Model the fold of this input.
Amino acid sequence: MSFIWFILIGLVAGWLAGQVMKGGGYGVLGDIIVGIIGALLGGWLFGLLGIGLGGGLIGSLIMAFIGACILIWLLRIIKRA
Done:
């Protein structure tokens, strides 16, 4: 997967996670960062659980979205503490 697709998936996943988690988004750069870190987190968690979504665009987007939602949730827990 090319670097541009990686950035675009990060942007879409971060934006979707911000909307679903009622964060309202974090701006373009923030959404990309949340999405990319979420993709790494989601890939690690799915691998740990032995769940494979395939290497396609939709599977990558779902994994990045779920990872980004978990990341936002963890950041909110840390912020409250």
